[in-house]
Amino acid sequence: MVLPRIPYTSPFPAPTIHPSHAVTLPAAIRELTAFLTSAGTGKTLLLSGAGISVASGLSDYRGEAGTYRLNRSYRPIFFHEFTSRHAARQRYWARSFLGFPLTAEARPNAAHAAAKKLWEMGVLGAVVTQNVDSLHGFGDGMEVVELHGTLRDVVCLSCHHKVSREEFQRMLAALNPLWRQLLLDDAAVMRKVKTNPDGDVDMPGVEYSRFRYPPCPLCLRRHPELRVDRDGAFLEQKTGDVTGVLKPCVTFFGENVASAVKARAEALVEEAAAVLVVGSSLATYSAWRLVRGAARREKGLGIVNLGGVRGEAEFFGPDAQGARIRLEVPAAEVLKGVVGELRGRIAAPVEHEMQAELRNGLSTGLAG
Length: 368
Fold this sequence. Notes:
Layout: H1 25-39, E1 44-48, H2 67-70, H3 79-84, H4 86-105, H5 110-120, E2 124-129, E3 144-146, E4 149-156, E5 162-164, H6 165-175, H7 177-185, H8 187-192, H9 217-222, E6 246-250, H10 259-271, E7 274-278, H11 285-296, E8 300-304, H12 312-315, E9 324-327, H13 331-367
Parallel strand pairs: 1-2, 1-7, 2-3, 7-8, 8-9
Antiparallel strand pairs: 4-5, 4-6
Helix pairs in contact: 1-13, 5-13, 10-11
Organism: Sphaerosporella brunnea
Keywords: Metal-binding, NAD, Transferase, Zinc
Protein name: DHS-like NAD/FAD-binding domain-containing protein
């Protein structure tokens, strides 16, 4: 079986800062503030990557302490592996079982909070994120498009029934008491283990063949021919048979981004006046093509990332059109700085408007 190549596991060339003087944090804050305000109210789309979640205790892939830099042998699971081999699913769910609590405990950091504040201020519009950690938040009015899905749920590959990841974690714990005990006995140790961006952990030398995982509960009732043991754990099926197989609601390597998600992300880029990339090297094609599309439409383009970025020479070359800004500063620090810069500017007009309304109301009342 020939697997797709994982793109850009080696470091990118060093970034070219643009404008060239924006090498200090104060200068970067001033330039990013000008970039965001020039695009217009709510007209900047935020595209975030794993780098924005590093301060929440999660790894990125290609940063200085990224998974591909520290572990040259690391390779995430591929879609074809997961759907074709029982052993591959055992390995994935065992590692994910240990990694999920660390992901579930992660909380939004200062960069997420600052991005949310900029949305509340009307500076940022929607968010398209490559991350599957759900740290941008939901249900508060800000649109978040998860380009590569989410770890919050698992979905059946045959009937598409969804189960929450927390419920699935309890099912895995019931089927694997020794692994559950490992989490309980070594909780302090496990908290020190770095979780990969896709939610699993590296466990060198561990045997996965005895790890058990359950089938989709609906398919188990509908398909009595499914092979399970006396505890309800999946036994090996016919090769390639995915009836009742549950998979995380994330896009694996070798799997296409959901068409509806892809269409919505493209529509948001089309509607935006500018795109701001934070914490991403744009190594994955799905994200890079969105930014390339914005650049070709001569929209504003800003990138805040520690380390080089795919397509950087094209995006910031001498022929580039539209507003351009390229910064290599910590995301949280520069975004917090922009919030501070804008707080006074945005609050003042609102205060003046309220004062004007009060004066008008008073004048009307006196005239009456």
